[in-house]
Amino acid sequence: MKLRPTTSLSDQQVQSGLNYFIHEGLAAEAMATFTGGTFLVAMAVLLKASNFQIGLLAALPTLTNVFQLLSIWLVQKYKNRRAISVICSFFARVPLFIIGFLPLLFSHGTSISALLFFLFFHYFFTSVSGASWNSWIKDLVPEKILGSYFSRKARITQILNVTLSLAVAMFIDYIKSHFPQFELTAYAGMFIVGGVMGMIGVYFLSRAPEPKTTLQDQKLFDLLSKPLKDVNFRNLLTFHSFYAFATSLALPFFVVYMMKTVGLSFAWIIFLGLVAKFGSIFSLKFWGTFSDKYSNKTIISICAPTFITCILSWTFVAMTSNHVVSIALLFVIHLVSGISAAGIDLAIGNLAMKLAPKNEAISYISARNIVVALFAAAGPIAGGLMADFFATHHLTWNIEWQGPAGISTFNLLELQNWNFFFVISAILALLSMRLVKRIKEQGEVQKEMVTIVMRKSVTRGLRKNMSGEAIKDRINNPIIIPAIKKRMLTYKLWREVKNTA
Fold first, then answer.
1. Element spanning 210, H or E
2. Which listed residue, of 181, 212, 257, 480, carries a Cα 20 to 30 Å from 264's Cα?
3. Domains of the chain listed by start with CATH number
């Protein structure tokens, strides 16, 4: 198969490439669902992983982004992002098969050390592939549809994630209930299936066309230093790095917190994760439209404080003894955090691509990924190291009211174990928001104006959906049951006859 770039692409080739990238994204999302996220944390807990090892496991995907330096050197040397991305993606999938076959081939199964060892190589090759992929898709996607395309791509992949997560969660719960001795084998099988999905993604990736790169022949560190000398891009890096460190301090421990502190079953944890996904799916189109029409910076200013509030809200989950109240609070937190996180991720990604010059996208985006990765990886590692310290400390803030009937105690705040991370994470993330004002974006719109437009759009949408014309369109929709349609039309005719009489 030829993996050579093309000097110029027709509109048909561009559209074909965009479709192939969506297909590749679906396969990659399926792979990530089977081999990462909640299921990977649950597997690590089953393998008796320590807090530090769980933090390291969460840090690996971002920590290995420093190896994107190798990708820049390869692109500069061979001028073929397509070949680099396809070949490295292939090698990234091989460790998944090894992890999957270890428990099947050896009686002693696998260990957390072996899992970390092989996942390192998986994330290493994924990182090298991802840097060339970022530059490749930057040149392929027209800038005028940047927000809508990536929001559509993210929405479709997350719908797949929701569907697969629910199915896999039901499967794992069934294994844990009826065949607990095969739980590790089930996780191993998921890695094999994930590897197969990943290889399908490699095939779609190899079919997408690549416009010829114009990356200049410069020294590697000169290429990386240029984005750091760009004041505006450096402001984006400073904010994103600080924000990534703050949020990653707590994020990896949410699943562990729900399992060990709140005492939720695996099914409930997956369900709440799906709630966040649903919030993300249904809001992505909205954020994509506003990203193209207004500014990404304003979306960050709206979504980030909302997400920070959600992190802080985790401290109140375990304060109530009512299990139903805890689950209800978790439901709201996951839904709102899913909506706000979708806007943040989309806006930061689009903003980085907008600020990156077309001919130097790989150096700009890779510099951003490498710098942010170092801070994002430091968060869970620091959290893992401090977890044992906070496990032995407890902070309680109560108010006592003494009256004729006795003393009443009101529990205002109770921090212990992972709750400390949530408060620290929220405070640091809130401080990072002060850095957003320094970023300059072309076509920037004030936050207040966008908020008014957003509110009017939501109101207009609700009014439109509740209008008589909209209801009539739904009645005439071919998927409506004919019997119901017939009854509604009959009722309408009866009203007309009555009014005439």
1. none
2. 181
3. 11-391 (1.20.1250.20), 473-501 (no CATH)
**pLDDT for 193:** 95
106: left (phi over 0), alpha (psi -120 to 50) or beta: beta
- Rounded distance between C-alpha atoms, residue 413 and residue 424, angstroms: 14
d(CA 269, CA 158): 17
Report the 10 Å Cβ neighbour count for 79.
Answer: 16
Mind listing the pLDDT tens digit for each residue in 183-225? 888 999 999 999 999 999 999 999 999 888 766 566 667 777 7
Helical pair 112-140 and 51-63, crossing angle rounded to 10 deg? 30
* Residue 108 to residue 455: CA distance in whole angstroms: 58
47-60 in b/e form (b: 16+ CB < 10 A) is bebebbbbbbbbbb
Q: Give the CA count within 13 Å in the CB-facing half-sphere of 11.
A: 0
Q: What are the tens digits of pLDDT across the range 343-394? A: 998 889 888 888 888 767 777 887 888 888 888 888 888 877 776 676 666 6
The pLDDT tens digits of the residues spanning 66-119 come to 888 888 888 888 888 899 999 999 999 999 999 999 887 775 667 888 899 999
Q: Which two tokens stand for residue 392?
A: 């032995």
- DSSP, collapsed to helix, strand or coil, labels residue 321 as coil
Residue 433 burial class via C-beta count within 10 angstroms: exposed 0-12, middle 13-18, buried 19 and up: middle
Q: State the pLDDT confidence band at 268, using cuts at 50, 70 and 90.
A: confident
Q: Is 401 exposed, middle or buried (0-12, 13-18, 19+ CB in 10 A)?
A: exposed
Rounded to whole angstroms, the Cα distance separating 416 from 319 reads 11
DSSP class per residue in 151-207: HHHHHHHHHHHHHHHHHHHHHHHHHHHH-GGGHHHHHHHHHHHHHHHHHHHHHHHHH
CA-wise closest residue to 115 among 63, 175, 47: 47
pTM: 0.67
Percent share of the chain, pLDDT over 70: 79
Q: How far is CA 501 from CA 492, 494, 495, 497, 498, in A?
A: 14, 11, 10, 6, 5
Give mean pLDDT, residues 35-53: 84
Neighbours of 343 (CB within 10 A): 26
Q: Which residues pair with 319 in a beta bridge?
A: none
